[in-house]
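Can't attach files on this board, so I'm pasting raw text. These are the components:
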Amino acid sequence: MDLNYTPEDVAFRKHVRAWLEQNLPRAEIKTLEDRRAWHRKLYEAGYLGMGWPKEYGGGGARPMEQAIVADEMARANAPAPTNSLGIGIVGPTIVVHGTDAQKRRYLKKILTAEELWCQLYSEPNAGSDLAALRSSAEDKGDHFVVNGQKIWTSGGSIADWGLLLARSNPGVAKHKGITCFLINMRQPGIDVRPLKQITGSSEFSEVFMTNARVEKSDQIGALGEGWAIAQTTLGYERGGRALARITTYATQYSRLVEAARRLKRHGHPLIDNPVVRQKLGRIWAELEVERYGALRVLTMLERGEHPGAGGSLTKLSYSEFEKRFLELALEILGPYGQLTEGQPEEYRLQIDTAVGDHGTWAYAFLWSRAGTIYAGSSEIQKNVIGERILGLPKETRADRVGGAR
Amino acid sequence: MNFSFSEDQTLLRNSVRSALDEHCKPAHVRAMMDDPKGYGEAVWGEMAKLGWLGLPFPEPQGGAGLGLVELALVLEELGRAAYPGPYFASVALGGLGLLLGGSAAQKEKWLPAIASGKARSTAALLEEALDWDPASTTATAAKTGDGWKLSGLKRFVPWAHVADFVLVPARAPEGLSLFVVDPKAPGVTIRPMVGIDLASRWSEMRLDGVVVKTDALVGAPGAAGALLDSLLRRAAVMTSAEMLGAARRCLDMSVDYAKVREQFGQPIGSFQAIRHRCAEMLLEVENAHSAVYYAAWALNAGAEDAALAASICKSYVSDAARKVCGDAIQVHGGIGFTWEYDLHLYFKRAKALEPLYGDAEFHRELIVRHQSAHA
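---
Top answer:
Structure tokens for the assembled complex are below.
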């Protein structure tokens, strides 16, 4: 046990920090093209697709190096690159399950953001019960025809391609009839409608597929293997954001403490109020415990071990923490915390929002509600923990018997 | 960066666990609950033989020369076994206290004796008002010709009734000071205070003009504040390790029980109400593990954030252990409320430790103060 960073990691961090100081965009990123340019700059510097194998254009970097880059970007309040699903999920899926032709055709363009990707998984009636999805893929000999509706597609409005789960065989048990495809989003059969969320923004879309075409060469893995492939892609979380997440919380926490020094109750600064101090002390302890947990995950990844179902513990822990943290922030900030416009400088989430995204407490607060729902709700994570880590018996479920319909 | 146990640490943990599985079964814990002394000499002798009693002391003083991560590992296992006896008091209070601030002569006299199991020790860190801040000490040390005369009332002194010496903070004319006191000396009255955890023992310790020689002083007169802060931090983290062990035992028992106990025709662990509770318990236990071993490492390495990490650890683990051990009773239902079933041994151990060396609230305040100091 040695919780100091190695000299190599310290030097690497210094190097990344210096690079960011030199290269951060000076002006606000307004258009998709601005963002692509920033993305390419990061890629050329070797800071994107770092964990991908070198032969596919990646950096072959260690998990700690990836975590450090993301962490330094959070510290510098750097704009996010684009194509995060392409790099985080689609690419790794193609690397593991794709054919050589698929790898040659798609991988490099994912890294360079030449082609942007989305993930077509959830449906209106297939959320936590993803395997209940009903979008169909019908074999027409030389291609597939796809019909159905997808929802919660992040980046759907800008995506060129999508990683699709569709039912290719309705006659077998529901987990066995699903196949994984790559689908061109730029075709007449695809209708993307932005989904306006409680944030007022539209990071997600609904996607309607009407007689959309998928080439035979764009099937990933074997027919009926889609569910198994999806299970592995959900496990591709490599701890890349493990440290960055904590740094973002810590930055927000210091802003909160600064605000608590200015705000008053009964004539005294809020920071002197014992009740507020207890709440701040508790949330800081929880935040640090999240950081310790991130270091444990990175230790495993560095040794080439995969956290497996342990990833459910990590996700459950930080997503629930984030909700508690932002609830507290809004409690301390009162109505300042709810401002979407006209925030006084002292009560802003970030000191400098020139290049960062969505610099309001209100947005962070509302967004925190998503974390315990997407990528497996907290309830699903607890099922996974109960069944796969603790070995508790599965519940009796009606859908484990019979076909999909 | 490596947040995992080394091979040696894992071996140590395994050997401690198997020794306790053999020598400290629940039947032993129950026997000691009724024992006047409260601990078994045979197990104590075994601990000495295995080198646990001198674990953090230097080798020349009969110790194993190991650090606080290893000590936390042993204490976690002791908590998991609800071990009845003065291990924590002797090694982590009296022993670490002298290790931190004792003179060469004090260390030479006591550390080998503790390590060999011949002597037991403890520290009297609490008074009537239950303020863990060492600065709140009201006991007094008056100067005499060749020493000091101590007076005051200490409470909740762990295992004082079997101790060969007690570290006693008292206020001297020079300020807060620390003394080595023989609990059998004239003027000392030890009276048992019996709590819900019958497998751990507390005493009230009254000092009525107790005379000690100059050589009883630990460190310089008036200079005990920093030493006591350090000792309190170590005690807080080490006691968290013991709570973690008790909580892990409660979780393991709950999961095992949920697999076999059937209601409505199926194992109760198949119901989400139970399964989700168990998942939450595991999350708390794993987070508590992170908090304990991070803090133990930080204190041992003298890391910049060691004091903060100690407070984070004790505040987090106190809450986590309360939740996990309480939930364990709920998962078990009626049987968890019976004397005969062993669950309450671990539930009570965690509960007894929860307020000690600063409760969660005390340490949360320290966390915020620490931040203000570094803002």
